[in-house]
Amino acid sequence: MSVSGLNRIEKKAAFSLASVFGVRMLGLFMILPVFAIYGEQLIGYSPLWIGLAIGAYGLTQALLQIPMGILSDKFGRKPIILAGLVVFLLGSVIAAMSDTIYGVVVGRAIQGMGAIASAILALAADLSREEQRPKVMATIGMFIGLSFTFAMVLGPIVAEAFGLSGLFWFTGALTILAMFLIQFMVPNSVNKAPRGDSVALPEQITKLIRHPQLSRLNWGVFILHMALTACFVTLPKQFVASGLALEHHWQLYLPTLLGSFFLMVPFMIFAMKKQKEKPMFSAAIALFTGALFLLWLMPSGFWSLVLSVVLFFTAFNYLEATMPSILSRLAPAGVKGSVMGIYSSSQFLGAFVGGIAGGFIANEYGEHSIFLVMTVISAIWLLLSFGMQPLKKSKSYSFTTNITCEAQAENVAEQLINMPGVIEATLVHTEATAYLKVDDKLVDLAAIKALLKAEPSA
Length: 458
Description:
Elements: H1 8-29, H2 35-38, H3 47-75, H4 77-96, H5 101-113, H6 117-126, H7 133-184, H8 195-198, H9 205-209, H10 212-231, H11 235-241, H12 249-273, H13 277-297, H14 302-330, H15 336-365, H16 369-385, E1 395-400, H17 406-417, E2 422-428, E3 433-438, H18 445-452
Antiparallel strand pairs: 1-3, 2-3
């Protein structure tokens, strides 16, 4: 990914924060490819408890994501991120020392309480200029994707060498590494982004949850991660049943995930160049649904499983990579922090529900039924995606203003929205900031500056 245009601080912030995010997500993801099998050795084992252990972190993440972002706005980004990592480390230690499934569930839930994603993204916003912010966020997104790939490969290797407790001790070691990165590599905030761009605003949450276009993406990421987590309640067992020993699973995951990345890139390029994001988005959901159906339809046979998993991860990686970009383009001006907070909470809540649903279905109806239930739910998501509006090309700006009252703000906002090329205009007089979403080809920035009597904030 090109980082041309980023200054020295932005490059350092992008790669150090992306590394912290990636290291932490690596620790969370590594349990997925092994826990369905190793969890059988724990006291109190049942498929339902396995599902709960896999998804437990998602509930506490979903509940605390927005509050932690708001706390970081009040007490500082780095202190809150470090506090979250300490909590995550505590959860890792508890899980590592547990020989019962119940202790692992508690440890995973405490891991989730270290909900630092929103604080990291807010710090990334603080440390980048508005026009360079998408590159910084894309770098973080890329590292999350890489961490998932490495987790699928490392999980079976570490578990085979050191057992399930060794996996959690390794996660704890990664957390300590992340702490050092935050303390010594991540720059201190030198450029404060507008508050609405970086953290969730409580007064906006209810309105944005009801937003018809954004809600489709929130439900989408919920279903995407629900299906992922639910499938891993049983998928490792499917590979063992097909003749692949657990310690060799990494030999399957590595080429499968790399292959899925290579397969998705041409589709992403086509969608962007031909402005076909909406139909390609629906096509990816259709592929995801088809892969789940194949996992249910062809339960036996190694190569049928490989084909299904390649299709599954091609669709998953495409959707995971493109949905935040679509979200940022649909987000109303000035509330990006709130939109991302709701999206992240939906993502983690999906992981929790997926673990619970996968465990319950396996317990009551057999593990193979998980794939059929997830197919039906994914098909519902496909139907929802057809109602998405075509995406408009736009660029966001924020301007400082000297507007001091609501009446004046409403008057200026009305004038702005009637100017050529202005798609959305939001004025927050309490922050002395105007947020605009514009069509760069039509907008007259000089006229906007003249009206606001201010320069864009950098």
